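Narrative of activities, Objective 1.

The group set out to show that a structural description can be obtained from nothing but a protein's sequence at a throughput compatible with the screening campaign. Below is one input-output pair from the validation batch, recorded exactly as produced.
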Amino acid sequence: MVRELSKSTDIIYPDSDGQPMADNTKQFRWIVVIKENLELLFADNPDVFVAGDLLWYPVEGNNRIRRAPDAMVVFGRPKGDRGSYKQWEEDHIAPQVVFEILSPGNRVSEMIQKQAFYDYHGVEEYYVYDPDEVDLAGMIRGEGRLDPIEDIQGWVSPRLGIRFQLEEETLKIFTPTGDPFLGFIELDRRRQEAEAERDRQRQRAETAEEEHQRERQRAETAEAEHQRERQRAETAEAERQRERQRAETAEAQLKAMEQRLRELGLDES
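Output recorded for this entry:
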């Protein structure tokens, strides 16, 4: 038993099978579109791992049992870089959803072998798209095996929530919110537009804050002026009171003098 374990640990699991990711630009573009948009779709979920053209080893101890799906999604595994997907190191969780993009170089026997591999190793949803023929096929697990999806038009993936729409010239894929999967250039353009809008919103917020500060300053200035006016009014009222007091004092003094004059018989009247 110890000898067998030693042999197993000595096995090398290459990170590459020596095959190109794609045979042509159209196939490569579709692989990137699907993989990147799935990454965006689950960007906020730390326990969904999305990969493109990554070797998947389902069986420990056998490095010949392997496939590199064009795109795959694994629920229940954390994001992060990997040289390959060794299932026994991933809590024995197999990819639930797999995509393959056909090219003229794909052989029927190869696709049959891939289907058998994904079926045997527990894939729940398997989608194959031929961009040259604009043809999409899908399979979903039921009764312990992958069964064909009879009507793929408008099909919604149970796991991903995305919807497939075949049109005359291309396949369109929509997110659960109805947004289309976009190519890299369009994604970058929308990113730039979103950043520009964010900057505009921030500028508007800063302008509004500056105007608020100016309004507050004007209000404080008006309040200070109001305080000064009230102070001036109070000062004027105090001065008026003093003047009246002085007038009353002068009046009293005059009356006292007149009284004194009468007492001295000097009152001319």
